[in-house]
Design a protein that fits this description.
The complex is a heterodimer of chains A (177) and B (227). By secondary structure, chain A is mostly helical. Chain A has one domain. Chain A has helices at residues 2-26, 31-65, 68-82, 90-98, 100-114, 119-130, 134-145, 153-176. The longest helix of chain A is centred in the first third of the chain and has 35 residues, at 31-65. Chain B has 9 helices and no strands. In chain B, helix 2 (23-60) crosses helix 6 (104-120) and helix 3 packs across helix 5. Chain B is globular, with a radius of gyration of 21 Å. Helices cover 66% and strands 0% of the residues of chain B. In chain B, 46% of the residues are buried. Classes of the chains: A mainly alpha (177), B mainly alpha (227). At the A-B interface, helix 1, helix 2, helix 5, helix 6 and helix 7 of A face helix 1, helix 2, helix 6, helix 7 and helix 8 of B. Chain A: Residues 47-147 form the Nucleoside transporter/FeoB GTPase Gate domain.
């Protein structure tokens, strides 16, 4: 099953890249011109995201460097430890929604320190893989179309991150425990 | 809420830095963060340019409309306020498929395209619509079949079974996604927004079925104004 999935992911992108123009040609779409016309939009969209992403990255990066993030996780630790969550994975609960690169680095560090097949390594891997970086997704998606009032979107994202975090911990404790 | 979180991060950082004497580190971090943001966006340029070009072919060839019809009962349940056959549904489908297959760099452009299409249905371009919030919820909890990056890292550190986390990841992501959808539903039912009126020149006037006829439809593309 696993090797099949690996094979599938290796073939998927090239298959899509070949299939779409082929289908377009079959439908008599001038494929190259259409491609370049659509591609033009990509640059503007990416540039439009810059202010949003710079703003967010500055705030998050300051928050981590000041040590504030460590204080917050420290304050949360006793509460979550009582639920049976290993203390080492706690910082991930805050890092994961804030920074993809930061939480990936932290996960790699946990895997390197405790070993990939330790409970901590497994839990960290599961947390890292099971949700996306909420703040980044929100910034990029809404930034690209100029949404300023995000309504309840952030609450939903952060809530599902918390649920995903707890689910990852308890599912791992149950499956590998 | 984003305003408060952003302000909170910055103010708390400076206060904490003042208390711990890490002012230099925080200053450095601010500029590193800014640099990082730009670097990420420039990384997005090539991906967005490429996939948006490819997806335009898919749209003009009627492939997206086909994809939207294929799974429309499910998607319509999640996005009841998007008109049937609207291109947004096709992009939403592509975005979700790319997420599920773990094609991260294809998922983002398709999600952004979906957002741009949803923006055309938005009576107030500065405020997110319920459909946008739902799409965002689906993306932040990202259902992924194979977390390839993590499997690679575990392999690097000599795991006996690098892929053993696939099952637990899938279960956790399913729980997270279900939670996101449920909360999104709850907010939707609570907000009781009046049904969206298609803006002039929006969905109603765009002949989607015409995409089946050969050739491109000229001059129908306008980007929503950047707010």
């Amino acid at each position: 099953m696993h090797s099949f999935i690996n094979l599938l992911s290796a073939w998927m992108i090239p298959a899509i890249i070949a299939f779409i123009p082929l289908y377009g040609a079959f439908r008599k779409v001038p494929v190259y011109e259409t491609f370049t016309e659509g591609a033009k939009e990509g640059f503007g969209t990416a540039i439009g995201i810059i202010p949003h992403l710079v703003g967010m990255m500055v705030a998050i990066s300051m928050f981590r460097a000041s040590g504030a993030l460590d204080y917050v996780t420290g304050a949360m630790e006793p509460m979550l430890r009582q639920l049976g969550v290993p203390g080492e994975v706690l910082p991930l609960s805050l890092l994961r929604p804030l920074t993809g690169a930061g939480s990936l680095a932290y996960t790699s560090d946990l895997i390197a320190t405790y070993g990939p097949d330790s409970m901590i390594g497994r839990i960290a891997s599961t947390i890292q893989g099971s949700t996306d970086t909420t703040l980044y997704v929100l910034t990029v998606y809404f930034g690209a179309i100029g949404i300023r009032r995000t309504r309840y979107a952030l609450k939903v994202g952060l809530f599902s991150d918390l649920v995903g975090f707890l689910a990852a911990v308890f599912i791992c404790l149950y499956v590998f425990g | 809420m984003v305003n408060w979180i952003w302000l909170g991060f910055i103010v708390v950082s400076v206060v904490v830095a003042a208390a711990t004497g890490r002012m230099d580190a925080v200053t450095q971090a601010a500029f590193d963060g800014a640099k990082n943001g730009v670097t990420i966006c420039f990384g997005l340029v090539s991906i967005l340019v490429f996939w948006m070009g490819l997806m335009r072919i898919a749209e003009d060839a009627g492939l997206l409309a086909r994809l939207a019809r294929l799974l429309s009962p499910f998607v319509r349940l999640l996005f009841p306020d998007v008109p049937k056959g609207h291109p947004a549904l096709g992009y939403i489908m592509s975005n979700m498929s790319a997420n599920i297959l773990g094609l991260g760099n294809a998922a983002t452009p398709m999600g952004i395209k979906a957002m741009q299409e949803l923006q055309k249905l938005n009576p107030d371009p500065a405020t997110a619509t319920p459909a946008m919030c739902t799409l965002l919820a689906l993306n932040t909890s990202s259902i992924t079949l194979v977390p390839t990056t993590l499997i690679a890292i575990r392999m690097n550190y000599g795991s006996a079974n690098p892929a053993e986390i696939v099952g637990t990841t899938l279960a956790a992501t399913a729980v997270a996604t279900a939670a996101a959808i449920l909360l999104d539903r709850w907010y939707r039912s609570r907000s009781k927004q009046p049904p969206m009126a298609p803006p002039a020149g929006g969905a109603a006037s765009r002949p989607r079925r015409a995409a089946r006829s050969p050739g491109r439809l000229g001059g129908r593309r306008e980007l929503p104004p950047e707010a």
